[in-house]
Amino acid sequence: MSETIIKATAFATTAHAGQVRKYVGEPYVEHPKRVAARVARAPGLSEAAVVAALLHDVVEDTDRTLAEIEREFGLEVATLVDALTDKFTPESHPALNRKQRKALEAERLATIPHAAKVVKLADIVDNLVGTDPADPFSEVFLKEKDAILASIGAADSALHFEVMSASATLRAAFDKAQAEKKVAKKAAQEKLLAEQAAQKAAKLAAEGGAL
After folding, report:
1. pLDDT value at position 209?
2. So where are the chain's domains?
3. CATH T-level topology, domain 3-210
4. Residue 27 DSSP code
C-alpha cells in the first residue's frame, strides 16, 4: 500500500469519524474502503482513481472541501471526487423532488470521466450489498440504480457483472420480504377478525344467558 493510499485512508477515516452505515451500523469509512478495494482490482486505472474511491463521499457527506482534497492529493483526485459528488441535492434544488433530482443526476453521470464511472460502479455494488431488502426503499434504490447504469454503462465489465448480480440478489430478497409481509398482514387480519367474532359470540351468549 502506497503512502498516498495510507494518507487517503487516514483522511477519509478522520472525515467520516462518528458516521455509521445505515442498516449495519458499522463505521462509515468501511464503505469507501471496500469501494477502493474493488477499484484497485479494475484494470487500466491510475492510483488517483483508488484515492478518489476512498474520498468519494467526503465532500458530499462531511465538512471537508474540494480545495482541501486538491491541496492534499492533487487536481486529478479532486476532479474525480467532484465528479462523484451529487450536484442535484435537496439543498441546491429545493423545488425538485427526489425522483427529479435523481433523474438529472443520472444524466450528469453520463458525462463524468471513465475512472469516476468505475468508482461509481464499485459504489453501487457496495450499496446494493449493504441495503436491507426488508426496507421498502430497496425498490426505489433499484430503480435509481437502473437509471445510473443506463447512463454510465459497463465502464468495467467485472464491476458491471457484480452490480447485476447484487441487484438480482437484492430484488429477489426484496420480493420475498414483501411476500412475507403480505402473508403476515393477512394472518394478522384473520386473527383480528376471529377475535372480534369470538368476542361477539361471547357477548351474545352472555346476553342470552341473562334472559
Report:
1. 63
2. 3-210
3. Hypothetical protein af1432 (1.10.3210)
4. B
Distance CA(172)–CA(175), nearest Å, equals 5
DSSP code string of 103-171: HHHHHHHTTS-HHHHHHHHHHHHHHHHTS-TTSTHHHHHHHHHHHHHHHH--SSHHHHHHHHHHHHHHH
pTM here? 0.84
Question: Residues of the chain whose pLDDT is less than 50?
Answer: none
60 is catalytic: yes
Measured CA distances, 79 to 51, 53, 67, 76, 96 (Å): 12, 12, 10, 5, 26
CA–CA distance, 121 with 30 (Å, rounded to integer): 17
Q: Which residue has the cell 342470552?
A: 208
Of the candidates 75, 35, 72, 51, which has an alpha carbon nearest to the alpha carbon of residue 2?
Answer: 51
According to DSSP, the residues that pair with 27 across neighbouring strands are 20
List the catalytic residue out of 61, 72, 82, 135: 61
Read off the DSSP letter of residue 20.
B
Q: Per residue in 135-156, pLDDT tens?
A: 888 888 899 999 999 999 889 9
CA-based torsion, 103, 158, 165, 125: positive or negative? negative
Catalytic site includes residue 175 = no
